């Protein structure tokens, strides 16, 4: 990682603005909350942040896949077995994805 590097993550990005005593000064932009903060990170803190963001992106992809397959007719029980989750968790994921899709559709209809 070097000065000026910009790393995108779901809902925002961070940019290396400087180095002080072997630590990174980063600007974190959160597009979802419309906020910008500066933080000082060690290498391990940056790696931890990147790992968390990757896991969130992986879970978002998994949840979208579960929702689409459930809409296509696969049962919650079969999806639960395949993804090593409980049928209740599958139901919660599908309900949350449905709410997200509904709010996305409402926002799109307002901007037209």
UniProtKB/TrEMBL annotation:
| Superkingdom of origin | Bacteria
Q: How is this protein named in the record?
A: Uncharacterized protein
Q: Which organism is it from?
A: Celeribacter ethanolicus
Record-linked Gene3D superfamilies: Homeodomain-like
